[in-house]
Amino acid sequence: MLPHTRRGGDAMTPVSAGHIKLTPTQPVGSENARARITDLLRRKPIAGGKYGFVDRVMDGIYVHVNSVLVKLMSHKFHASLQLSRVKVQSMSPTWQTPSDLRSTRIRDPGRGEVLLFKEIEWQTTRIEATASGAGQDFLTPLRLIANQAKIRIVVKKRLSDSAIISSRLTLLLDDLLWVLTITQLKAAILYANSLKVVIERSAQQSKRLAAEKLKKQGHMPDAASQQLQHHQHQQQRQDRQESSTARYFSRFDVLSTSYHLITSRFDLHLCDDSKENRHWKINGGSMQITFNKLSLDFYPFHPAG
To answer: Which residue ranges does the record annotate as region Disordered (predicted)?
Structure first.
């Protein structure tokens, strides 16, 4: 780990204006530790002390990984996710490469909060899934290869205890092209069905965590407390009306945790298998489905309706 400093005009120390660079080789993750991860999620989040120098250094770390390989193993299928040349760095609020790390955070003492902007970028994505213990028809691996992609993350923290209040995660993908045979499409449905139980448990757990978080943050008060909080928020807004920092903070504020996926074009090609036992009556039949400007949004802390 080598500190890279740049002249940023910081009166305290040059480290706060530069990057700390970490370059691991090839970490490998596994889904086998699901029980331990679930246990960690159930624990109460540990909040540190007041947001200070150590937090600024950790939030400004630059990470570059040559290759990331994640293996998922199930009784139905084995899958792997590989990302190449992963880069994690702090960005400006307008997602530009900063010359000074102080421009990658917006601090509002009036609110007692700070906004942090991070970007994760990688060159290629390779996803492969193979059925285990299935019939002969599902032995063909299911593959998806995508080009450059990036994730933009905005995190809002409290200055008093460095606890995360909310965050926004946006996955930006290049144009996608996925060619599937009928057999591979059936295999994809089989994989999705095998993950149904896990997805349902994850959704229930997310709802419980969301309810606990809203309760801890005081977002589920009675009517009298709600009116009092509304009056206090209006008064604080009026007090900060003349502050340029407050207006700048409000421009990029993250009001609620959310997840987003955006791609300009997604082409899905379905074609018949090149063998005698065809699934369609037409030899060489195919279908193309195109999604333009596809966008998916998910707000876990907001119930439907």
So the answer is: 1-29, 212-245
Structure tokens at 5: 């400093």
262: left (phi over 0), alpha (psi -120 to 50) or beta: beta
Q: Give the DSSP H or E segment for 248.
A: helix 244-251
pLDDT digits (tens, 9 = 90+) for 127-161: 888 877 655 555 678 888 888 899 999 999 999 88
The per-residue pLDDT for 4 is 45
Residues 188-225: pLDDT tens digits?
777 777 777 777 777 777 777 766 766 665 554 445 45
203 neighbors 293 (Cβ within 8 angstroms): no
Give the domain ranges of the chain.
Answer: 2-298
Give Cα separations from 40 to 33, 37, 43, 215, 240 (angstroms): 11, 5, 5, 20, 39
The pLDDT value given to residue 76: 73
Nearest to 252 by CA among 159, 161, 170, 160: 170
Q: Which two tokens stand for residue 211?
A: 């309810």
* Cα–Cα distance for residue pair 75/78, rounded to 1 Å: 8
Residues constituting the chain: 305
Q: Please compute the mean of the pLDDT values over residues 160-171 and round it to a whole number.
A: 90
The Cα–Cα gap between 12 and 142 comes to 54
Sign of the dihedral through C-alpha 155, 161, 163, 166? negative
What is the helix (H) or strand (E) element at residue 247, kind and residue range? helix 244-251
Phi, psi of 233 (to 5 degrees): -65, -40
Q: Is residue 220 helix, strand or coil?
A: coil
Strand, coil or helix: 270:
strand
Secondary element (H or E) of residue 229: helix 223-239
Beta strands (DSSP E) in the chain are 2-4, 19-22, 28-30, 61-73, 77-90, 105-108, 113-122, 124-131, 142-146, 149-158, 164-173, 176-181, 258-271, 286-298
